[in-house]
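Bit of a strange request maybe. I'm writing a small parser for C-alpha cell strings and I need a real example to test against, not something I typed by hand. Could someone generate the C-alpha cells for this chain?
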Amino acid sequence: MVRLIGRTDKAFIAALNGPAAGVGLAFALTCDLAVAAEDAVIVPAFGKLGLVPEVGTSWALTRALGYRRAFAYYVGGEQIDAQRALDLGLVNEVVPGGEVMAAAMRWCDRISALPPHALPIAKPLLRGAADSSWEQALTMEEFAEPMCFTTRGFADGVETVVAATSSASR
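Reply from user aminoacidic:
Good idea to test on real output. This should exercise your parser:
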C-alpha cells in the first residue's frame, strides 16, 4: 500500500481522527498531506515494543524530522499530540474533531482545481527531490518544466493570473 501511495501520481490525504500507530502511522506519513483532529495523537510505540520503524516510517520520519529528532522520537516513545505534530511538520493542518473529513475534502478540492497535468508531473518531482542533490533536482525540473508550457492547463492558468493581477492593480 505504501508503495502505491508513494509511486502513483494521484494525491493521498490522511485524515487522522485518533491515534496513529504502527502501520496506520506509516500510511499517514506516506500520504502527500495529513489533516489531524485536535485530539489525534501520533504513537511511536516501535521501540517500546522491541520493534524498528516499519513500512517506510524510518524514511518518512528522518526526512520530516531530521536524524536526531527521528532518533529521539523512536527511543523516547512519547505520544505526540496533534499540535506538536503540526509544529514538527508531521501533519499539515489541525482542525476540530468533527471537521477532519471536511478539511481533507478542502485539500481534495484544491488538488482537483489544478490543471490536469500539474500533479502527475509535480508529485514524482517533489518525491524524488528528497533523495536528490540540488543539481539532480534542477535537472529533473529542467526536464519537466517544458512539458508544462505545452498544456492547455498552463495557458488557462496564465490567463487567470493575468486577469486577477490586472483587476487587482485597478
